[in-house]
Specification:
This protein has 3 helices and no strands. By secondary structure, the chain is an all-alpha fold. It has one domain. The protein starts with a helix and ends with a helix.
C-alpha cells in the first residue's frame, strides 16, 4: 500500500507541475501580447518573430489598390500652418 500511495503522490506532483508550467507559459504569452498589442512599432524579436521554414504574408500593401510600392506622390508648397505641422 505504501508503494501505491507513493505512486499516487508522484502522479499528483507531476500533474501539479504540468499545470503550473502551462499557467506560466500562458501568463508569458498574455504578457507578450499585452506589451506588443496596439503599438505601431516594436523591436524585432529574433526568438519569437521568426518561424523556421515557413513563409507567410504578414502585411498588405499600404498604398492604393493594396500596392506595396509608392510609385507616384505629390507635394505642395501651398500649405497652411496646420497642414505643415501634421508631418
Amino acid at each position: 500500500m505504501a508503494d501505491n500511495q507513493q505512486g499516487d503522490i508522484s502522479q499528483q506532483i507531476q500533474e501539479a507541475a504540468q499545470q503550473l508550467a502551462q499557467q506560466i507559459l500562458q501568463e508569458e504569452q498574455t504578457l507578450q501580447f499585452v506589451t506588443t498589442n496596439g503599438k505601431i512599432f516594436t523591436r524585432f524579436d529574433k526568438q519569437n518573430d521568426i518561424v523556421e521554414n515557413q513563409k507567410q504574408i504578414v502585411t498588405d500593401g499600404i498604398w492604393s489598390n493594396n500596392n506595396g510600392f509608392l510609385n507616384t506622390f505629390y507635394t505642395s508648397s501651398e500649405q497652411t500652418e496646420e497642414q505643415k505641422n501634421i508631418i
